[in-house]
Fold:
Amino acid sequence: MANEAKLQVDGKDLALPIFSGTENEHAIDIANLRAQTGLVTLDPAFMNTASTTSAITFLDGEKGILRYRGIPIEELAEHSSFVETSYLLIYGHLPTRDELKTFSTLLTRHSLIHEDMKRFFDGYPGTAHPMAILSAMVCSLSSFYPESIDAMNVAERDITITRLLSKVRTIAAYAYKKSVGQPFVYPQNHLSYCANFLNMMFSVPAEPYEMNEELVKVMNLLLILHADHEQNCSTSTVRLVGSAQTNLFASIAAGICGLWGPLHGGANQEVVEMLAMIHKDGGDVAKFVGLAKDKKSGFRLMGFGHRVYKNFDPRAKIIKGAADRVLKILNIDDPMLEIAKKLEEVALRDEYFIERKLYPNVDFYSGIIYRAMGFPSSMFTVLFALGRLPGWIAHWKEMIESPTTKIGRPRQIYTGPTLNHYVALDQRK
Ligand code: CMC
Structure:
C-alpha cells in the first residue's frame, strides 16, 4: 500500500498520508484536510470513518474474524473465564496466575453496594425497565466514590475499574429482584464472579439455591462473547463522553444508554419477543421473512444483519451451539429454538438476505439461552451490558491514557436558514 493518497481540489494537488494498522487495514489521514483546503469530510453514521486507532479488538467482518488482543474469540470461548478475559481486555495481556488471583480477589471484595444505594431502588416503580435502573445506578456510583470523579487521577483508576466491574452484577441482580418484589440477596465471597451473579439473581431466602455448574460455564461463555466489539455504538459513546475527561462511572452509564436501543443491545429482547409473536401467530416463518422484506411493513428480522459482519458473526455460531446444549442440560423443549432455526434457514436461502449479506448476529440465539436459564426478557440487554463492561472499560482506559487524545468533537454541514433577523412578537404573522 502506498504511504499517501492524492486528492485534487480546485485544481490544487494535495497529498494525504495513509495510516496502516497491524492487520493490513489502511486509512487516509484527513486530520489536516480542513486546514489545507477548507473542506471537511461528510460521513453520516460513520459508514466509512475510523474514529480512532485501537489495540484492543480486531474484527474482520468479511472473514468472520473476532480477536481480543490478538486471541481468537473461539479460543477464549473454549478456555477462558469472563474474569480472565476482562483482565486481558483491560490490561492488554493474559494474566499470570498471581495477577489473576489478585484481580479475582479484588472483584470479590468490592461486590457490595453502599447500603444507602439500596434505598434508591425503592423509588422505582416495579415495572421499571432494568436498563433504566442500571444506567442511573452506575452513574450514581460516582456520588459514593467522589475521588473517582477526576478521570485523570491515575492512582484511583484501577480501584474504580474494579469497583465498577464488581458492583455492576449486584446492581443488575437487585434491579431484577425489585421487579419481582423479592428481597435483595447479598453477594457471597465464596462464589466465583458468574456464580455470585446467578445466586444474587435466583436465590430466595425460603430455600437453598442449587448452583448448576454447567449454567455457570454458559454464563461465562456468553459474557466472554459479548465482552468487546471495537467501535460499536455504545463503545463509541463511552469514548466520546470520556474524551471530555468524564469519569469512568458516568462514561459507562452513557454507554449503557446507547446499548439499550433495539438496533444495538436491545435487539436480544426484541428477538425473543419476535419469536414469541411468530409462535403465537401459528409459526409460519416464511410469512415473517416476507414481512421483513417489505419495507412498508416497518418489520425487520431482529437479530439479523450487522454493520460490519458481511459473512457470518462468529459469536452467533458459538451461541447457536450453546443454545442446543443448554436446552438439553435443562431438559427444556423450547418451541422458540425451533422457530429461530427455521427462520434462519428460510432467510439464508432468500435472495433478499443473500444480496444484502444479512446473517444471524450475536443477539439471535442468546435470548433463547437466557430464557431457558430463567431470565425474563427485560433482563437480556442488562446481561449484554454485564458482558460488554470490560470492553467499555478497556476503551475508556485506552482513550484516557493516550497522550494524543483530544475531546471528540465532530463537525457538521449546516443546512438550515441563512442569516435571518429577530421579529418582535406582535409583528409576527
Ligand atoms: N431485516 C430486514 N432487512 C434488513 C435487516 C433486517 N434485520 N437488517 C438490514 N436490512 C436491510 C435494510 O433494510 C437495508 O436494505 P436496503 O439496502 O434495501 O435499503 C440493508 O439491509 C442494509 O441495512 P442497513 O440498515 O442500512 O444496515 P446498517 O449497517 O445501517 O444496520 C443493523 C445494521 C444491525 C442496525 C441492521 O441490520 C438491523 O436493524 N438489524 C436488526 C437489529 C439487530 O439485530 N441489531 C443487533 C446488531 S448486533 C449486536 C449489537 O451490536 O448490538
In short: The CA atoms of residues 135 and 256 lie 6 Å apart.
